[in-house]
Amino acid sequence: MIAAIDVDAQKTFTPLCPDELPVAGGDEIADELNAQAAFAGLRVMTKDAHTPAAKWLCASRAEMGQPTGLPDADRTWVAHAMVGSYGFELLDGLPAEHEYDFCVWKGTSPELHPYGACFHDLRERRSTGLIEWLDSKGVRVVIVGGLATDYCVKTTVLQLLNAGKAWQVLLNRAACRAIAADTEAAALREMAQAGALLFDHAAAIGDYLRANGINSRA
Length: 218
What we know:
This protein is of the alpha/beta class. The protein has a single domain, classed as Rossmann fold. The protein is 24% helix and 21% strand. The chain contains 5 helices and 8 strands, in the order βαββββαβαβαβα. The strands form 2 sheets. The protein has a 6-stranded parallel sheet, with helices on both faces. Strands 3-4 form a two-stranded antiparallel sheet. β1, α1 and β2 form a beta-alpha-beta unit. The N and C termini lie close together (5 Å). Pfam families: Isochorismatase.
């Protein structure tokens, strides 16, 4: 079984929301996310889902990145992905939430600002259920894309690889965008060193799957 994960493919992380956390080209990945999902029997959605009461909020970009002193929200961020806002929405061209097979909403509590899709907390003690669900479905290949490469995508990939399961994790670079070139390069190295397989686009993933006799429901 193959699963495809759309990590935080939300408008908040694109130029469509310039006052939130825009990532250059973040609004251009829907087609590649859909292309990678075409190889999968299961599709997962993750979304940042924040509250105006979040304790990690700061008023301006100049104040971002400061330590919060909170165990599960390490730094300050401007408001983004507020539930019900335009930025909270998925990118145009992606399925509606109810069309996904499994959904993870991250950071719903004022105390939390996780990055990866597998745990609600930075200490990775409180599971979102994603690892367990993938395992219960017999998933052997996980294809990952989303926003941003150097934060939530990287953390999700590493969490999947560290789960101790017998699945392969494939990263679709064309379905991702990064905040900065240097942190993207570092993130790609870290994921590859941890065991992720990196591909330039969904078509290359398709070639790999066919060459290895892997299909969506095998």
